[in-house]
Specification:
The complex is a heterotrimer of chains A (315), B (620) and C (348).
Chain A: H1 2-30, H2 36-41, H3 47-57, H4 63-75, H5 89-125, H6 127-142, H7 145-159, H8 175-209, H9 212-219, H10 224-261, H11 267-277, H12 280-308, H13 310-314
Chain B: H1 2-7, H2 11-28, H3 30-33, H4 65-101, H5 103-118, H6 121-131, H7 136-146, H8 148-163, H9 166-173, H10 178-214, H11 226-235, H12 244-273, E1 301-310, E2 313-323, E3 328-332, H13 339-346, E4 354-363, E5 366-367, H14 372-381, E6 383-386, H15 400-412, H16 416-429, H17 435-439, H18 448-460, E7 466-470, H19 478-495, E8 498-503, H20 506-512, E9 515-520, E10 523-529, H21 530-535, H22 540-548, H23 587-591, E11 604-605, H24 610-615
Chain C: E1 7-16, E2 24-34, E3 39-43, H1 50-57, E4 65-70, E5 73-74, H2 80-86, E6 90-93, H3 107-117, H4 126-136, H5 153-165, E7 171-175, H6 183-200, E8 203-207, H7 211-217, E9 220-225, E10 228-234, H8 235-240, H9 245-253, H10 294-298, E11 304-305, E12 314-315, H11 320-323, H12 329-337
Parallel strand pairs in C: 3-8, 3-9, 6-7, 7-8
Antiparallel strand pairs in C: 1-2, 1-4, 4-5, 9-10, 10-12, 11-12
Bound molecules: adenosine-5'-triphosphate, iron/sulfur cluster (SF4) (2 copies) and magnesium ion.
One iron/sulfur cluster (SF4) binds next to loops of chain C.
Chain lengths: 315, 620, 348
C-alpha cells in the first residue's frame, strides 16, 4: 500500500539526481585537456588510426549526442570499457563493489549499534560518560580517516600483529579472513561516525525524556523499561535515522581514503585511480554506481521514516 | 562587541583562538621560524627524532618536518579559505533568499539543494580533479559549493523561523521596509549561526584538503603539503612511527580548535541577550515552624510539609493538605507559584533535575515518601495524572489502542484480547463517540477535546482512587472545556474518584471543586471550602485574585488589580511573601515568616491582618 | 447619530492555499466597522478566523475579496508605501509577549523603531519620547537599556503596547493581548488599555477567546464561527440576550465563578463535535446546533437584525427571532441604543 507507492514515488523523484550527476560528469569530463583517443592510439599513431579510434569512441560527435549514446548504452547495461585495461567497466565495478559495500555496511552497522548504545548509556548515566562521548566525538570528527588508519595499522597490525596490515579477503573465500580484514578499516571509518551517532542519540533521548507524554506515562505507572525502550527510543529514533542516512553517504569520503591506505580493491579507490589515469568510462561508471547507492540509501531512510513515524504514514 | 568579550571569557574558546592564531602567524612567517628550507635535504639525519636543530624530526630524505609543516600550511590555509568563501557566498545568499522570499524561489532552491545534498561530494571533487589535474583551487571551490546545501538548509529554516516571529510582523506593522527588517531583525540573528557553520565547515575543509594531498592530488612532491606529510609518514610507518605525530597532530588540533570555537560561539551568542544566571543560590528563605499535624483520619491523600527543590533552590516549601475520598480539591494561583510542582511532587516526579527534599506524602495510609516501591505501585493504580496540553501528552508513535492497552495490562495483567475490551470500555466511559474507530487512530489524528478524553481514559486504566489533573482544560476552547469539566463531574459521580485539580480559572474552581487551596510563591496561603472562599476570602491575595477576574467587573469601571508580579523563587523575602503587593502590609509582616493560622473553623490563612481584611471587605 | 467609521470591513474573504489540501477559507464574507474611540471585540473558538481578520486589516495577509477602508480610504490592497504612511495611525499588539519583541534588541531600540519610519513628525529627541512612553505604560525609563528577557510577560506586553503608541495611533488591533498573562497581570493590562483609550481616544479591534474579558473591554462584539459572522451587536445586548445558538453555546460554556450557580444559566446542550461537516450551502453551525431544522442544511442564513431596532444585534440564524430569550428586553434595548457606559450587571 502506502510503502510501495512511496518507493515508486521516491524512485521517480530520484531520476533527476541520476541525470544531474551523469550529465555533470559528462560535461566535466568533456573538458578534460587530454584526449582519450590520443592516449589509446599511442604517441606514434597515424592521423588515420587516430581518427578511426575517435570514431569508434564516438568522440567525433557533438556532446549532447555523445551523452545520449552513453545513456542508451547504459540502459542496455553497457558502461563501455576501461581505456587502460580494456576490461568492461561493468565487470570491473562488479568485482569491486563487494569491497566498498562491505566497508560501508559494516561501518554503518557498527556506528549505529555502538553509537546508539553509547548514546543511551550517556543519556542515562550523564556525568563522566557524557564528557567522554563529547571528547570522543570531537576527536573522531577531527582525526582525518587516512591518518587514523595509519595510526591503527601502527598499533594493531604492526606492533600488536592482531590484524593484517592491508588487503581484502573476499567473503566467499574465507568468512573469518573477511571479517579480520575489515576490522581495522571499519574502525578507522567508524570512529567518528560512532561519536556522531552517540551524540545524536543522547541529545534526542534527553529531548524525548523531557516531553510531556513521558511524564504522563511515568505518573500513570508505565514500566520504566517500557518507557525507555518502547517509547523514548522509538521517538528518539527519527533524528538518529536521519543522521545515519546522511552519514552513510558521507562515509564514502572516508572510504576513498581508507581503501587507499589498506590497499583494498574497492569502488572508491578505483575512482581515485581512474582520476589519476583519466580513465573516463571508469569514472562515469563509478559515479553512476555511487549515485545509485545514494538513492538506495535515501530510499531506505524514507522507508524507515514511514515505519517509525505514523504522521508520515497516515498523511 | 558584547559577544566577543563573552566569547573570550570561555577557556575553550581562548585556547582554540590561540591555536588558530598561532598556526596562521607561524605559517605566514614560516621563513622566520623554520631554520631549514622545506626542501633542504640532510641525508645524514634521515628519519631523525626531534632534536634541537630539527624540533619535530626529519623525514626519509632528512628534510626538516617543522619547516615542511609550516610551508605546507600556506597552501592548506589558502585552500580552506577558498572553500569557505565559496561555501558562504552560495550558502548565505541562497539560504536567505529561500527563507525570506519563500514561494517559488524557495521551492527551486530547496529542490536544487536537496539534489546537491545527495551528491557524494568527495567523488565529484575527484572528477573535478581528473579534469583539472593538480588544481587544488578548483577542487576546493567545488567542495565549498557542494557543501553549501547544508548551510542553505540551516539558514533557510532559521530565516523562515525568524520571518514568522511576531516581532517581524510587528516591524512590518511599524512600516519598516524589507531591507530594514533584514538588516535589523534577520541578519543579526543569523550571524552567530553563520559563524558556527563556517567554523564547522572549515574543520571539514581542513581534512579534505589534507586528504587530497594524501592521495597525491594536491601539491606535487617535493612541494610540502599537510596531506603529503601523512603520505610520507605512511611510507616509513614500519621504520619510523614517530613521523605520524608531527604529520597528524597539528591537523587534529586545528580541526578540534575549529569545532570548539564553533560551539563556544553558539553558546555565547545566546548568552549575550538571555538572562544572565544569578551567580549563586542564596540560602533558602526560612519558613515559619508549623506543627505538621498527623494525617486527618480517613483522608485519601495527606501531604505534610512537602518541600521541593530545583537546582538547589526551593520552589515549593512546607505545603500540607488533605484530599478526602471522592472529594475535588482545587489548587489555584498564578504562574510560577508552584502548583504543578506540588502536583507532580506528590507522585515523586519533579521536572528538570529537581527533587523532593522534605515532607511526607501519605496515600491510603501508606507513606509514599518512605518507600519507592510503594510509590511506583501507587502511580496509575492509586493516583493517576492528566497533564495540561492533551496534544502532546500521548506518544505520537503509537495508536490510542496500543497505549491504552499497555496501561490496562500493566495494571491488571489482562491478556491482549481482554485488555482490548477494557480499552473500548474505557473509551466509551469517557464519552468517546466511536471507541472502535478512535482506538485505531494515532494521537495526531485526534482533536484537542478527543485527545483529552483519551488521556483521561489512560489515567483511569488502573482504576485509581485519586486523579491529579494539572490544568486539564487550559489548552482547550471554551465549549470543549465545558465538555471536559462535565465529563470529570460525571466520572466523579459514577466512580467516586477524588480529584486534585490545578487551575488558575476561578470558574473551574466554582464549577467543580468542593474545597480549594490558594498557593503563592511556593506556599499555601489560604485553604477553605469553595463557597466560603468566594464569599469571604481570608487572604489578601485570594481577595485580589477574585476581584481581578473580569467576569465580575462592569464595563467602564477599572478592574481591581494586585500591583507588581509574583516573585521568583530566588527573590522570596524573609517575611510574608505577598508583602510587596499587599495593601495591608505592615512592618510586622516583613519581619518574620508568617505562619498558617485557622481564624475560623475549617479555614486556614497565612496572614497577620485577617481582621482588617474582613472588616474592610469592600476595599479589595 | 453615528460618527463615520474609522475602520470599515466589508465582505472580507481570505483564503489560504494549502499544499496537499483544498484551499482553506479562513474568513468568509466578514463585515463590521469600528468607530472612533470605540472597542469592537472579535470572539470565537480557535480557528474561527479572528487572527486572520486582524492580519488582513494590517496587510499582513493577502485579501481574496472584499474591502477594507481606513478613515474612508480603501486600503484592501494598499502598497508598501501607503502601508508605511498608514502605520503611524494603525497599529497592533500581539498575543505572545515573548515572541513579539526581538530578544536581541533592547527595549529602547524596539520602541524607537516606529520613529525610524515616521521621522518627519519628530519633536523631542527619540530618547525622551521613549522614556516618556515607558513611563506612560508604567515602566521605569531606564528599562530602555535592557533586553526583553529581563522582563516578565506582563511587562513585555506593556512594552508592546508602548511600541504601538509611539506614533499617534488611532486604531490599535489587539490580538489576544492578555491571554498569555496571569489573572492579576491581565487585570493590570486591561486597565492600562482602557485608560489609554480614554486619554488618547483610541479605537481598538480587540480579539480574545475569553468572553468575560471581551465583555469588559468592548462596546460592540462580533462573534465568528468558521470564518463567518454569526452574530454582532452591542456587547451587553449580545451577552444578555444571545440571538444565535452558537453565541448561546459559547456563553453557556464559560464556567461561572460563582459556586452557588453550579449549573450554567443558558443551559445549551453541548453537543460533542461530531465528524460531520456542514453542508456547503447551509448554516455552518448546523452540525452542532441543537435547534437545527431542515432549512438550515439547505439555505445559508443571512446576517439580519434580530428585532428590527436600529443599532441592535444582528444574527445569522433562520430561527433567531423565535429562539431569542425574551428576557429583560427593555433594559437590553436601552443599552443597545446609547453607548454602553457604566452599565448594569445583574449578577455581581
Ligand atoms: N523544569 C524546571 N526547571 C527549572 N525550574 C522549574 C522547572 N519547572 C518549574 N520550575 C520552577 O518552579 C517554580 C514553580 O513552578 P510551577 O510550574 O509549579 O508553577 P505553576 O504554579 O504550576 O505555574 P503555571 O500556572 O505557569 O503552570 C517556578 O519558579 C518555576 O520557574
Ligand atoms: S501577612 Fe501582611 S503582607 Fe502578608 S498578606 Fe497578610 S497583611 Fe499582607
Ligand atoms: S440556522 Fe439553524 S442550524 Fe444554524 S444556528 Fe440557526 S437554528 Fe442552528
Ligand atoms: Mg503549571
Amino acid at each position: 500500500m502506502g510503502a510501495l507507492r512511496l518507493v515508486i514515488r521516491r524512485l521517480l523523484a530520484s531520476m533527476p539526481l541520476l541525470f544531474l550527476t551523469s550529465a555533470l560528469t559528462f560535461v566535466l569530463v568533456s573538458l578534460v585537456p587530454g584526449d582519450p583517443a590520443r592516449t589509446i592510439a599511442g604517441q606514434h599513431s597515424t592521423a588515420e588510426q587516430y581518427r578511426l579510434i575517435r570514431g569508434q569512441l564516438g568522440l567525433d560527435q557533438p556532446l549532447p549526442v555523445q551523452y545520449w549514446n552513453w545513456l542508451t548504452q547504459v540502459f542496455r547495461g553497457d558502461l563501455g570499457s576501461s581505456l587502460f585495461s580494456g576490461e568492461a567497466v561493468t565487470s570491473i565495478l562488479q568485482n569491486r563493489l563487494p569491497v566498498s559495500l562491505s566497508l560501508i555496511l559494516a561501518s554503518t552497522v557498527v556506528s549505529g549499534l555502538a553509537g546508539v548504545a553509547l548514546g543511551l548509556l550517556s543519556a542515562r548515566r550523564g556525568g563522566v560518560l557524557m564528557k567522554i562521548v563529547d571528547g570522543l566525538a570531537l576527536f573522531g570528527l577531527a582525526a582525518p580517516p587516512f591518518w587514523l588508519a595509519l595510526l591503527v595499522i601502527e598499533v594493531f597490525a604492526v606492533t600488536l600483529r592482531w590484524f593484517p596490515v592491508t588487503g581484502y579477503v573476499p567473503l566467499e573465500e574465507d568468512p573469518g579472513g573477511w571479517a579480520g580484514s575489515l576490522v581495522l578499516p571499519v574502525v578507522s571509518i567508524a570512529l567518528g561516525a560512532v561519536a556522531i551517532i552517540a551524540k545524536q542519540t543522547r541529545d534526542s533521548v534527553l529531548d524525548t525524556m523531557n516531553r510531556d507524554f513521558i511524564r504522563v506515562m511515568q505518573a500513570n505507572g508505565f514500566s520504566p523499561r517500557s518507557i525507555l525502550y518502547r517509547h523514548i527510543l522509538r521517538n528518539a529514533a527519527l533524528p538518529i535515522v536521519t543522521v545515519l542516512g546522511v552519514l552513510m553517504v558521507s562515509l564514502l569520503g572516508a572510504v576513498v581514503f581508507v581503501e587507499t591506505v589498506f590497499a583494498m580493491p574497492g569502488v572508491a579507490s578505483l575512482t581515485q585511480q581512474a582520476t589519476v589515469q583519466h580513465d573516463i568510462p571508469v569514472i562515469q561508471g563509478a559515479v553512476l554506481y555511487i549515485t545509485v547507492f545514494v538513492i538506495v540509501v535515501n530510499l531506505v531512510v524514507d522507508l524507515a521514516y514511514v515505519r517509525l513515524d505514523p504522521r508520515v504514514r497516515t498523511s | 562587541m558584547k559577544t566577543t568579550s563573552r566569547l573570550l571569557r570561555r577557556p575553550a574558546a581562548v585556547v582554540a583562538v590561540a591555536w588558530l592564531v598561532l598556526l596562521t602567524v607561524a605559517t605566514a612567517c614560516a621563513p622566520l621560524i623554520a631554520a631549514h628550507g622545506p626542501l633542504d635535504q640532510d641525508l645524514s639525519h634521515v628519519l631523525a627524532l626531534p632534536s634541537a636543530s630539527h624540533p619535530l624530526g626529519t623525514d626519509s630524505l632528512g628534510r626538516d618536518l617543522l619547516s615542511r609543516l609550516l610551508y605546507g600550511g600556506q597552501p592548506a590555509l589558502l585552500a580552506v579559505a577558498e572553500a569557505l568563501v565559496a561555501h558562504l557566498v552560495v550558502g548565505v545568499t541562497l539560504g536567505l533568499v529561500a527563507g525570506y522570499l519563500g514561494g517559488w524561489a524557495d521551492t527551486l532552491i530547496t529542490r536544487v539543494g536537496d539534489l546537491l545534498f545527495a551528491l557524494p561530494a568527495i567523488i565529484i571533487v575527484l572528477v573535478v580533479l581528473s579534469v583539472f589535474p593538480g588544481n587544488l583551487h578548483a577542487a576546493m571551490i567545488t567542495f565549498g559549493v557542494l557543501g553549501s546545501p547544508g548551510l542553505i538548509r540551516v539558514l533557510r529554516s532559521r530565516t523562515l523561523g525568524i520571518r514568522q516571529e511576531m516581532y517581524v510582523a510587528a516591524a512590518r506593522v511599524c512600516g519598516l521596509s524589507d531591507a530594514q527588517i533584514l538588516l535589523r531583525h534577520v541578519l543579526p540573528r543569523l550571524t552567530s549561526t553563520v559563524i558556527v557553520q563556517a567554523a564547522l565547515f572549515s574543520a571539514v575543509a581542513v581534512i579534505i584538503q589534507a586528504g587530497l594531498g594524501f592521495l597525491g592530488l594536491g601539491a606535487q612532491p617535493p612541494a610540502p603539503s599537510w596531506g603529503g606529510l601523512v603520505a610520507d609518514a605512511s611510507q616509513v610507518i614500519d621504520r619510523d612511527p614517530w613521523m605520524l605525530v608531527p604529520a597528524g597532530v597539528p591537523l587534529v588540533l586545528t580541526v578540534v580548535a575549529l569545532s570548539m570555537l564553533g560551539d563556544a560561539i553558539r553558546d555565547s551568542a545566546v548568552e549575550s541577550w538571555s538572562v544572565s544566571k544569578l551567580a549563586t543560590a542564596s540560602a533558602p528563605p526560612p519558613v515559619a515552624k508549623e506543627h505538621a499535624e498527623a494525617p486527618v483520619p480517613g483522608a485519601l491523600l495527606s501531604v505534610r510539609d512537602l518541600t521541593v527543590e530545583i537546582d538547589g533552590v526551593p520552589v515549593v516549601q512546607g505545603v500540607s493538605f488533605d484530599v478526602m475520598p471522592g472529594e475535588t480539591l482545587g489548587v489555584v494561583g498564578e504562574s510560577g507559584c508552584g502548583k504543578s510542582v506540588t502536583a507532580l511532587g506528590v507522585l515523586g516526579l519533579v521536572p528538570g533535575n529537581g527533587r523532593v527534599t522534605g515532607g511526607r506524602v501519605v496515600f491510603a495510609g501508606t507513606d509514599l515518601t518512605a518507600s519507592p516501591t510503594e510509590l511506583a505501585r501507587v502511580r496509575g493504580s492509586g493516583i493517576a495524572y492528566v497533564s495540561q496540553d492533551p496534544m502532546v501528552a500521548l506518544d505520537p508513535t503509537f495508536t490510542v489502542l496500543s497505549q491504552l492497552r499497555e496501561a490496562v495490562r500493566r495494571h491488571s495483567g489482562a491478556n491482549r484480547e481482554q485488555a482490548r475490551e477494557r480499552v473500548l470500555e474505557l473509551l466509551a466511559m469517557v464519552g468517546v463517540p466511536d471507541p472502535e474507530g478512535v482506538a485505531g487512530r494515532y494521537p495526531h489524528q485526534l482533536s484537542g477535546g478527543l485527545a483529552q478524553r483519551v488521556l483521561i481514559a489512560l489515567a483511569l486504566a488502573g482504576r485509581p482512587k485519586l486523579l491529579i489533573a494539572d490544568e486539564p482544560t487550559t489548552a482547550l476552547d471554551v465549549s470543549v472545556q465545558k465538555e471536559i469539566l462535565t465529563l470529570l463531574h460525571t466520572l466523579q459521580r459514577r466512580t467516586g474518584i477524588a480529584v486534585l485539580i490545578v487551575t488558575h480559572d476561578w470558574g473551574v474552581v466554582a464549577t467543580l471543586c468542593h474545597r480549594s487551596l490558594v498557593m503563592y510563591a511556593g506556599q499555601v496561603v489560604e485553604q477553605a471550602d469553595v463557597e466560603s472562599m468566594f464569599v469571604r476570602p481570608l487572604h489578601p491575595y485570594t481577595a485580589g485574585l477574585l476581584a481581578a477576574n473580569p467576569h465580575r467587573a462592569a464595563h467602564g469601571h477599572a478592574l481591581t488589580t494586585i500591583p507588581g508580579t509574583v516573585p521568583s523563587p530566588r527573590e522570596w523575602p524573609v517575611g510574608c511573601r505577598f508583602a510587596a503587593r499587599c495593601p495591608y502590609a505592615g512592618d510586622d509582616c516583613r519581619a518574620a515568616p508568617v505562619a498558617l493560622t485557622g481564624p475560623a473553623p475549617a479555614r486556614l490563612t497565612r496572614c497577620l491582618h485577617v481582621e482588617e481584611l474582613v472588616s474592610e471587605g469592600a476595599r479589595l | 447619530m453615528t460618527p463615520r467609521p474609522l475602520l470599515q470591513v466589508t465582505e472580507l474573504t481570505v483564503e489560504y492555499g494549502q499544499r496537499h489540501a483544498p484551499t482553506l477559507r479562513a474568513a468568509d464574507g466578514v463585515s463590521f466597522d469600528v468607530r472612533p474611540g470605540e472597542t469592537v471585540g472579535l470572539v470565537g473558538e480557535s480557528g474561527s478566523g479572528k487572527s486572520t481578520v486582524a492580519r488582513a486589516v494590517l496587510g499582513l495577509t493577502p485579501v481574496t475579496s472584499g474591502r477594507i477602508r481606513f478613515d474612508g480610504a480603501d486600503i484592501t490592497h494598499a502598497n508598501r508605501k501607503t502601508r508605511r504612511a498608514l502605520s503611524a495611525r494603525l497599529q497592533m499588539v500581539f498575543q505572545d509577549p515573548y515572541s513579539s519583541l526581538n530578544p536581541a534588541r533592547t527595549i529602547g531600540q524596539t520602541l524607537a523603531e516606529p520613529l525610524l519610519v515616521h521621522s518627519g513628525e519628530r519633536g523631542k529627541p527619540v530618547g525622551e519620547r521613549v522614556a516618556a512612553m515607558l513611563e506612560r505604560v508604567g515602566l521605569p525609563a531606564k528599562a530602555a537599556e535592557r533586553y526583553p528577557s529581563q522582563f516578565s510577560g506582563g511587562q513585555r506586553q506593556r512594552v508592546a503596547i508602548a511600541r504601538a503608541l509611539m506614533t499617534s495611533a488611532e486604531l490599535v488591533v489587539c490580538d489576544e493581548p492578555v491571554s498569555a498573562l496571569d489573572l492579576s497581570i491581565q487585570a493590570q493590562t486591561l486597565n492600562l488599555l482602557s485608560d489609554l483609550q480614554r486619554e488618547l481616544s483610541l479605537s481598538y479591534l480587540f480579539i480574545a477567546h475569553d468572553l468575560p474579558v471581551v465583555r469588559y473591554l468592548s462596546h460592540r462584539v462580533v462573534v465568528l464561527y468558521r470564518g463567518r459572522v454569526m452574530e454582532t451587536g452591542p456587547v451587553d445586548l449580545v451577552y444578555e440576550r444571545p440571538a444565535h445558538p452558537y453565541t448561546r453555546a459559547l456563553l453557556a460554556a464559560v464556567p461561572d465563578p460563582d459556586p452557588r450557580i453550579r449549573t450554567g444559566r443558558h443551559d445549551e446542550p453541548a453537543t460533542p463535535r461530531g465528524a460531520s461537516q456542514p453542508t456547503a450551502t447551509g448554516c455552518p453551525f448546523a452540525p452542532r446546533c441543537a435547534h437545527v431544522v431542515e432549512i438550515c442544511r439547505r439555505e445559508r442564513p443571512g446576517l439580519l437584525p434580530v428585532d428590527g431596532v436600529p443599532g441592535g444585534a444582528s444574527a445569522a440564524c433562520h430561527r433567531a427571532a423565535e429562539l431569542t430569550p425574551t428576557g429583560n428586553g427593555t433594559v437590553a434595548r436601552a443599552v443597545a441604543v446609547g453607548r454602553p457606559g457604566n452599565a448594569h450587571m445583574e449578577e455581581t
